[in-house]
Amino acid sequence: MMLFLICMTGFAGVVDSAAGGGGLISLPAYLFAGLPAHYTYGTNKFSAACGTTFATARFLKSGALDLKVGLLAAAGSFAGSAAGSHLAVLLSDGTLRLMMLCILPVAAVIILTRWKSPDHDPGVQPLTPARAVLAAAIGVGIGCYDGLFGPGTGTFAIIAFSTLMGFDMRRASGNAKLLNLASNYASLATYLASGLVVFHIAIPCAISGIAGNLIGSRLALKGGAKVIRPMMLVVLVLLLGQLTTEML
Q1: What span, in angstroms and rounded, lies between the C-alpha atoms of 8 and 237?
Q2: pLDDT tens across 15-49, in order?
């Protein structure tokens, strides 16, 4: 079972670093392995935070980040994620599963209807007050969702940055990583304080996730929209598949 988790978290890292939605792979894998829902969330946050750290560093090094926008969104995400995580800890396993079932079709509709982004990178744009507020608002909203629920967070962040901030897919994905990094660490702090991380599982999965994130970020930076869009379609299929499974 450990080998299964390592393989799945590695694959989740590849998908998440390029298109978001890695939790749609890793969370069901942890649940299938028999972890209770709250321990699944905590253990997943540990491995996801480690992988996202390396992916963010690669995007930053490549220049595929609007750093001012990214930092504002990350700050908002940190606050939103902490609030969402505190709420998640208070909810029962059954309530969390019911929320997952309700959110998945909404996620699918958003991804289907918001499927546009600029074809070319507009570069770093001036940070006007309006753009600063928008960046922070994106961070708070997506961070809260990430702390409370999780799956598809990176995908929603890419969509938000591309449609609302006008970024191309590479820059949207890079800024989504920075936002995700902040929300992951905010959530992880809550789960660590609550003793909900299973370290003998989380550490090997984190190593696998780091490798997957490095592979995925490299593919995204080289291929751009040609790689990211199809992988977002994979996330959509996983969303629909998970919904179908929950309904059976």
Answers
A1: 16
A2: 888 888 888 889 889 988 999 988 998 999 999 99
H helix or E strand, kind and range, residue 34: none
Polymer length of the chain: 248
Into how many domains does the chain fold?
A: 1
> For the CA atoms of the chain, what is the radius of gyration?
16
Report yes or no: 173 and 64 within 8 Å, Cβ to Cβ.
yes
Helix (H), strand (E) at residue 35: none
Tens digit of each residue's pLDDT (9 = 90 or more) over 218-237 = 988 887 767 776 776 677 66
Q: Which residue bears the tokens 């789960």?
A: 191
Contact 69, 127 (CB under 8 A): yes
The closest alpha carbon to 111, from 24, 45, 202, belongs to 24
Model confidence at 121: pLDDT above 70: no
- What element of type H or E holds 203? helix 199-223
> Where do we find the tokens 């996620």?
107
Rounded average pLDDT over 112-139: 75
Region 181-209 average pLDDT: 92
d(CA 72, CA 99): 28
User: d(Cα 9, Cα 135) in Å, to the nearest integer?
Assistant: 29
Would you place residue 186 in the very low, low, confident or very high pLDDT band (cuts 50, 70, 90)?
confident
The type of residue at 209 is G
Could you give the angle at which helices 199-223 and 225-247 cross, rounded to 10 degrees? 140
Residue 156, amino acid? F
* Domain encompassing residue 15: 2-247
